[in-house]
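Final report, results section. Input specification for complex C-07:
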Amino acid sequence: MRALFFIALNGFRESRRNRVTVVVGLFALLLVFFTTFSFELAVNTLDRAMTSVGIGFISLISEVLAIFLACGMLPREVERRTVFLVVSKPVSRTIFLVGRYLGNLATVLFVFSLMTGLFFLQFVVLRGTVTQAHLVALVGIVAEVVLLSAVGLLFSSFSSQFISVTTTVGLFFVGHMASDLYRLASASKAPAVKVVGLALYYLLPNLERLDFKLRATHSLPTPPGELGAALAYSGLYATLLVAVAAWIFERRDFR
Amino acid sequence: MTTDFAIETRGLSKHYRVGRRAIIALEGLTLSVARGEVFGLLGPNGAGKSTTIKLLLDLIKPTAGEALVFGRSPRDSEGRRTIGFLPENPAPYEYLTGEEFLSLAARLSGLSAAESKTRVGELLVRVGMAKASNIIIRRYSKGMVQRIALAWALVGKPSLLILDEPTSGLDVLGRQLVRELILEERQRGTTILFCSHIIPDVERLCDRVALLVGGKLIKQGQVSELLVSEGALMEATVESITLEALKALGLEARAAGSRVVVCFDPAKTQEVLTQMMGAGARVCELTPARYSLEQLFVDAVTHTGVEERP
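Structure output:
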């Protein structure tokens, strides 16, 4: 467990010193800062607009950063052969992989916390009302980041950065269109389309289950059971993906 | 599990497939390295030296055969607690300082925070990197990277040190430092598997060597035995005769300034001298010449007829 901690800490340190991460972090803060101050609307509309744009940006930046880190760090380490040094120590490949995953998550959550803090600060200054719906939406973003990072990690455990990014971004969009996929498959009269469509719906990550942003915009509450189910879904799905990634990574040749 | 051997391989093979082409990186390697021995792996590019090392560290999986390190499978990550590894062209974490990099190695090797601090301090001095310890590795020269990576290998006080081209990229002083470190480790009882293109280093440092060509083991044994088995040579430096005239006598000769050097079997000394003097040569010097490891290497590669692989 000590090794896991040091690898995760090292991953966090790497991201913190990576110019791209720093630029993305600063850009994210500027974006949140300027968008929430750029509205001149009535008080009731202001709350809604700020929530929609502010949380929207927090979500977008967090997800982009999660994909960038999950798909970029591991292939880079394998290509540069830095991995040779680490796995020659008494560290299993699974520990190394999970450590990298946790390091990536720590980085995204760090930037996410800064953006969220800034968002709430401005919200309170402008006399907006923080509701349960805001918090649920933010928890949903974290759950999505956890899942997306695991998807990216799975692909980067056996393929290049380019392939990992392309596939993960593809799954991101498919995951946000899960209900459309379900409707399309259910309505189809062709049995093959129906079977494949439904299989994809159940197999691929359903990111719509973790998306509570629209409810935050309209201050609609989410039942605790629904949130709990969404979190369990994200946690279990991510655990499964990381386990598969570790299984592949353990068997991989580092030439 | 206790064993007299630090490394044992039995029929170890690794085959790759690149597209439709099958590549035999290593074929049926059987060798053993005793505890405390300095063992050299020699061979041209693509001979299978790095493949052997990667198999011993579980960086790649064998196609056939098995490898054991101190009696344990390389897949056992705990077994790597006893191993220090310096890869060829090491790529350390560039965003860390030298000190942070070594601290990470120490903590991954299981050292406590206090032990780590002491050990890292010692090693930074030992590899001559104390002054650069707070500079990020991205700014290091190739030689500095090699030194800090060598310290990474040594940090856990390993019982087996695997060094792949350890003097690559180092200047004369750096190479001397590496040789000293290897000798120090040998005195400490560390087993060293040493892989290098620099044959004089191998000849000077290794107790035994294995010569790999085209993924196959061609020769192995003690350096002195291998050289003796190839036979001694006698060298005569002569003048007052041309290179062509000597070659016409069926002798192996090469020009050396205004003189000519002739090599022959010591058993035929009397016969060759009589033959040369009869042709008008004046013998200036007669010395026994040792068959070098380099010559052994070149001969083995030439006789095998295997081309270098990238």
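Residues 150 and 239 of chain A are 8 Å apart (CA to CA). Residues 2-176+211-251 of chain A form one domain. This concludes the modelling results for the funded period.
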